[in-house]
What does this fold into?
Amino acid sequence: MALGLLGICAASLLTAGISADSGAAYVVSGAALSGLSLGCSAVASTARGASAVGEGQRGLASGLLNSSAQVGTALGLAVLFAVAAAVSAAVAGGGEPSPEALVLGYRVAFSVGAGIAAAGALAAVLLIREKQK
It folds into this structure.
Protein backbone atom coordinates (compact mmCIF):
# COMPACT_ATOMS: atom_id res chain seq x y z
CA MET A 1 0.00 0.00 0.00
CA ALA A 2 2.77 2.42 0.94
CA LEU A 3 4.66 1.67 -2.27
CA GLY A 4 1.58 2.54 -4.33
CA LEU A 5 1.15 5.81 -2.45
CA LEU A 6 4.82 6.66 -3.01
CA GLY A 7 4.25 6.00 -6.71
CA ILE A 8 1.33 8.44 -6.65
CA CYS A 9 3.60 10.96 -4.92
CA ALA A 10 6.24 10.50 -7.63
CA ALA A 11 3.61 10.81 -10.38
CA SER A 12 2.33 14.06 -8.90
CA LEU A 13 5.85 15.49 -8.68
CA LEU A 14 6.52 14.38 -12.25
CA THR A 15 3.35 16.07 -13.47
CA ALA A 16 4.34 19.22 -11.58
CA GLY A 17 7.13 19.62 -14.14
CA ILE A 18 4.70 21.13 -16.65
CA SER A 19 5.34 24.56 -18.11
CA ALA A 20 3.28 27.04 -20.07
CA ASP A 21 5.13 26.08 -23.25
CA SER A 22 5.16 22.30 -22.93
CA GLY A 23 3.95 19.61 -20.66
CA ALA A 24 2.33 16.77 -22.59
CA ALA A 25 5.18 14.37 -21.81
CA TYR A 26 4.94 15.20 -18.08
CA VAL A 27 1.17 14.75 -18.04
CA VAL A 28 1.16 11.47 -20.00
CA SER A 29 4.00 9.90 -18.00
CA GLY A 30 2.53 11.14 -14.72
CA ALA A 31 -0.90 9.77 -15.61
CA ALA A 32 0.57 6.37 -16.52
CA LEU A 33 2.58 6.13 -13.30
CA SER A 34 -0.38 7.39 -11.27
CA GLY A 35 -2.71 4.79 -12.78
CA LEU A 36 -0.33 1.92 -12.02
CA SER A 37 0.35 3.19 -8.51
CA LEU A 38 -3.30 3.82 -7.72
CA GLY A 39 -4.11 0.27 -8.75
CA CYS A 40 -1.46 -1.07 -6.38
CA SER A 41 -2.53 1.02 -3.41
CA ALA A 42 -6.28 0.56 -3.93
CA VAL A 43 -6.10 -3.22 -4.15
CA ALA A 44 -3.76 -3.44 -1.15
CA SER A 45 -5.87 -1.14 1.02
CA THR A 46 -9.12 -2.92 0.15
CA ALA A 47 -7.60 -6.33 0.82
CA ARG A 48 -6.10 -5.18 4.12
CA GLY A 49 -9.29 -3.46 5.22
CA ALA A 50 -11.53 -6.38 4.36
CA SER A 51 -9.24 -8.86 6.08
CA ALA A 52 -9.25 -6.81 9.28
CA VAL A 53 -12.89 -7.67 10.03
CA GLY A 54 -14.76 -10.90 10.58
CA GLU A 55 -15.78 -13.05 7.64
CA GLY A 56 -19.44 -12.03 7.92
CA GLN A 57 -18.59 -8.33 7.70
CA ARG A 58 -16.15 -8.35 4.78
CA GLY A 59 -18.72 -7.28 2.20
CA LEU A 60 -19.78 -4.34 4.35
CA ALA A 61 -16.16 -3.36 5.00
CA SER A 62 -15.34 -3.52 1.29
CA GLY A 63 -18.35 -1.36 0.44
CA LEU A 64 -17.41 1.22 3.09
CA LEU A 65 -13.81 1.32 1.86
CA ASN A 66 -14.88 1.81 -1.76
CA SER A 67 -17.43 4.49 -0.85
CA SER A 68 -14.86 6.29 1.29
CA ALA A 69 -12.38 6.18 -1.58
CA GLN A 70 -14.91 7.75 -3.95
CA VAL A 71 -15.84 10.52 -1.51
CA GLY A 72 -12.17 11.13 -0.66
CA THR A 73 -11.27 11.41 -4.32
CA ALA A 74 -14.03 13.93 -4.98
CA LEU A 75 -13.13 16.04 -1.94
CA GLY A 76 -9.42 15.82 -2.68
CA LEU A 77 -9.88 17.00 -6.26
CA ALA A 78 -12.07 19.87 -5.07
CA VAL A 79 -9.41 20.99 -2.60
CA LEU A 80 -6.59 20.71 -5.13
CA PHE A 81 -8.54 22.64 -7.77
CA ALA A 82 -9.27 25.33 -5.17
CA VAL A 83 -5.55 25.54 -4.38
CA ALA A 84 -4.71 25.84 -8.09
CA ALA A 85 -7.35 28.54 -8.61
CA ALA A 86 -6.25 30.51 -5.53
CA VAL A 87 -2.58 30.48 -6.55
CA SER A 88 -3.42 31.42 -10.15
CA ALA A 89 -5.67 34.28 -8.98
CA ALA A 90 -3.05 35.54 -6.54
CA VAL A 91 -0.36 35.58 -9.22
CA ALA A 92 -2.71 37.30 -11.68
CA GLY A 93 -3.36 40.08 -9.17
CA GLY A 94 -7.09 40.28 -9.80
CA GLY A 95 -6.86 40.25 -13.58
CA GLU A 96 -7.19 37.46 -16.09
CA PRO A 97 -4.57 34.78 -15.22
CA SER A 98 -1.85 34.32 -17.82
CA PRO A 99 -0.88 30.82 -18.96
CA GLU A 100 2.15 31.05 -16.66
CA ALA A 101 -0.09 31.89 -13.68
CA LEU A 102 -2.39 28.96 -14.46
CA VAL A 103 0.54 26.56 -14.77
CA LEU A 104 1.99 27.80 -11.47
CA GLY A 105 -1.34 27.15 -9.78
CA TYR A 106 -1.43 23.59 -11.10
CA ARG A 107 2.22 23.01 -10.17
CA VAL A 108 1.46 24.03 -6.59
CA ALA A 109 -1.65 21.82 -6.52
CA PHE A 110 0.30 18.80 -7.83
CA SER A 111 2.97 19.45 -5.19
CA VAL A 112 0.32 19.57 -2.45
CA GLY A 113 -1.13 16.33 -3.79
CA ALA A 114 2.33 14.75 -3.69
CA GLY A 115 2.67 15.80 -0.05
CA ILE A 116 -0.69 14.25 0.81
CA ALA A 117 0.28 10.98 -0.90
CA ALA A 118 3.62 10.94 0.94
CA ALA A 119 1.82 11.50 4.25
CA GLY A 120 -0.50 8.60 3.41
CA ALA A 121 2.49 6.35 2.68
CA LEU A 122 4.07 7.32 5.98
CA ALA A 123 0.81 6.61 7.82
CA ALA A 124 0.54 3.22 6.11
CA VAL A 125 4.04 2.27 7.21
CA LEU A 126 3.67 3.51 10.77
CA LEU A 127 0.06 2.64 11.60
CA ILE A 128 -0.84 -0.55 9.77
CA ARG A 129 0.40 -3.70 11.49
CA GLU A 130 -0.03 -7.35 10.62
CA LYS A 131 -2.31 -9.41 12.83
CA GLN A 132 -0.60 -11.54 15.45
CA LYS A 133 -1.52 -15.20 14.91
The mean pLDDT is 91.
